Structure formats: C-alpha cells, structure tokens
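Batch manifest, entry 17 of 40.
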Amino acid sequence: YVVVARVEQLPAGLYHYDPRSHALCELGRADCLASIKQAVFIPEAVDNAAAVFVLTAVFGRSKIKYGERAYRFSLLEAGHVMQNICLAATALRLGVCPVGGFVDDEMNDLLDVDGVEEAVLYAALIGSLDTIGG
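Output type: structure tokens
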C-alpha cells in the first residue's frame, strides 16, 4: 500500500499496488497521514513524509508457497522489500525512514485489513533527503 501526501502528479490518498496490472489503484482520498501519525511510535517523523509505503503480508498466500515456514518467510520478505525501498530512495536522492514501531490494530484498520489473514508488517516514510533520514 502507498499513502500519498505530497507527490507530484499523484493525488493525495490511499493506494494499493496491483501486481497483475503493475499499477497503483486508488482506494480513497482520506487523510491517511494523520492516522499513520497517531499509529506510529515516532509521530514527529511523519510530518515531513511525502508518501508512506506500508508493507503487508497475506498469510494464506505465503502458506501456499512456503508451507509451515510461511510466517517466518513473510517477515523475511518484508525486510527484503524494505531494503529495496531504501536502496531505491537513496538512488533517487530521497530520504527514507523505515518504521517497525506502530500500533498494529491502528495500522491494520487504516488499510481495512483484519490483522489475521492480512497484516501490516513494516512501513517506510519517504520524503526529501534533508527532512527524512538525512
């Protein structure tokens, strides 16, 4: 998922990445950044975010692929994806702040996921290099 606040040529709102069409699908235009600020343990860092990537796992899909190690590999894959987000942000001269400290239920509610079948694992605040992670 991507929460957009201040990104050129992309209206503010909540988006979901659709891997089949390789596109962002808009889910709504609510002020999701305010909800994220309430949910994370470093709320002051959210103020300067232009966007927030929110990584979730759909555990049933992982179980089909990984069997009894699905939960563990879901966590590992979230870490791998976060590393790629950090590398891409660095290459684009953007600031990035990975966030693993948040109130699970609040983040899950924001995305309308149940926290059991699908749950938020990790988030990344993205913004200008001088205000985030610089």
